[in-house]
Amino acid sequence: MRFFKCTFVVILAVGGSEVRPASCAQTARRPNILLIMADDLGVGDLSSFGAVDLKSPNVDKLIQGGMRFTNFYANCPVCSPTRASTLTGRYPDLVGVPGVIRTMARENWGYLSPQAITLPQLLRGAGYQTTLIGKWHLGLRPENHPCNRGFDFFHGFLGDMMDDYYRHRRHGINYMRRNFDEISPAGHATDLFTDWTIETIKTRSGSRAPWFVFLSYNAPHTPIQPPDDWLKKVKARRPEMDDRRARLVALIEHMDAGIGRIMQTLDATGEAKRTLIVFVSDNGGQLAVGGRCGPYRGGKQDMYEGGIRIPAGMRWPGRIEPGTESERITLTMDLLPTLCEAAGADVHRQIDGISFLPTLEGALQEEPLRTLFFVRREGNSRYQGQDYYAVRQGDWKLVHNNPHAPLELYNLKSDPKETLDLADKEVAVFKRLTSALRVQIQRAGAVPWQSPQ
User: Fold this and answer.
1) Extents of the domains making up the chain
2) Mean of pLDDT values over 143-161
3) How confident is residue 74, by pLDDT bands cut at 50, 70 and 90?
4) Which of 131, 143, 116, 138 is nearest to 347 (CA)?
């Protein structure tokens, strides 16, 4: 079997880019890829990103071993849309997931388009073994089962959130699966997902084919339910910490310990030196349960920086210099073209993301002036089933944090905390960004988001 590393060119197109292989040079082996996504982890809730009351030594070590990103964004301030963008390289509303996909139809605001091509499909086409461990949250219908969207193996939770980390139910329904089979494993969900990842790495170790594992934790999403021994550790170390914050810190530190076990497994199996690791969150932290989003305004659900700016880091021994940092504005949808380029996989269709592989490898990479869109559709009395948005272009950011409120305009260079609304003063900028938003709304309006009946 022969493996190839491909160099790619980015061809600009209306609404995005198309990535095609330009030239290939034979190489011994393409990297394994481990993509770790935390759930509702704020940019201020890792010690490597400024947390002073929390210890995350394993994630910190992972990030220190490669590149830390200071301007990394989730495509949405909530879960499903970001995951859709991560796996398709597209804006979430352009693949039918403007909002959260839920178990009950009346609360459901997305349906992953059958036309969308996913990252595991592309990697599998390049010879990768593809695995999803943990939370799926992109649909319960058979056509959107992970094993029908590019994953060779699935071991995790089909639904949105768990009502209990130990019982693994949602609305009383068991969504735990091993491929298509319903299972009832015992244990804390974080431990289960860690154990299953370790098992997968050991199974894949030594294989001639490279592997892709998407480890999708549901921690530290609500319910904030850390194991008792972890909560006791936090309380003993920080007795002055209020219970709400202590429970979240314990849940995060427990997840960090699991990641440490995975890193040890990579070392023990010899897979570490040939594995590209990505660590990201799916959106900002939930303020109501003690989450922190650094110095930024807002949190989960908000289009302010706290809701969409996320902690992120990547490690690739021999390719990413340890201890490096990037200020490049990067989105979760950029991961697909980046990982595909690293893997030599042909992205044979138009996408919205742009590869930042040259940045990872230390090359000078021009940062294009992109107009970036963030969207969420939601129900309940606050949103009434409507969309709300943010648009970023350079230092300027348009915010529509509620579909019933006026649009706001901020300059992130001079006002990163978004305190001074310039909508009435910078009229030309306001008009330019609102015009771009209307075009994006028209594009997305052509894509169904309701599942077939």
Assistant:
1) 30-360, 379-445
2) 97
3) very high
4) 116
- Asked if residue 267 lies in contact with residue 292, where contact means CB atoms within 8 angstroms, the answer is no
Give the CATH superfamily of 30-360. Answer: Alkaline Phosphatase, subunit A (3.40.720.10)
**Is the pTM higher than 0.70?**
yes
Segment 160-195, tens digit of pLDDT: 999 999 999 999 999 999 999 999 999 999 999 999
Rounded average pLDDT over 365-369: 92
CA 244: distance to chain centroid? 25
Is the CB of residue 29 less than 8 Å from the CB of residue 210? yes
Q: Taking Cα atoms as reference points, which of 389, 431, 436, 396 lies closest to residue 416?
A: 396
Q: What is the C-alpha separation between 319 and 321, in angstroms, rounded?
A: 6
Predicted confidence band at 24 (pLDDT cuts at 50, 70, 90)?
Answer: very low
**Interhelix angle for 243-269 vs 228-237, to 10°?**
110
Say how far apart CA 231 and CA 29 lie, in whole Å.
43
Tokens of 112: 């992953």
Does position 25 have pLDDT exceeding 80, yes or no? no
Handedness of CA 324, 62, 299, 372 (dihedral sign): positive
CATH code reported for the domain at 379-445: 3.30.1120.10
Estimate to the nearest angstrom the gap between the alpha carbon of 29 and the chain centroid: 26
**HEC string of the chain?**
CCEEEEEEEEEEECCEEEEEEEEEEEECCCCEEEEEEECCCCCCCCHHHCCCCCCCHHHHHHHHCCEEECCEECCCCCHHHHHHHHHHCCCHHHHCCCECCCCCHHHCCCCCCCCCCCHHHHHHHCCCEEEEEEECCCCCCHHHCHHHCCCCEEEEECCCCCCCCCCCEECCEECEEECCEECCCCCCHHHHHHHHHHHHHHHHCCCCCCEEEEEECCCCCCCCCCCHHHHHHHHHHCCCCCHHHHHHHHHHHHHHHHHHHHHHHHHHHCCHHHEEEEEEECCCCCHHHCCCCCCCCCCCCCCCHHHHECCEEEECCCCCCCCEEECCCEEHHHHHHHHHHHHCCCCCCEECCCCCHHHHCCCCCCCCCCEEEEEEEECHHHHCCEEEEEEEECCEEEEECCCCCCCEEEECCCCCCCCCCCCCCCHHHHHHHHHHHHHHHHHHHCCCCCCCC
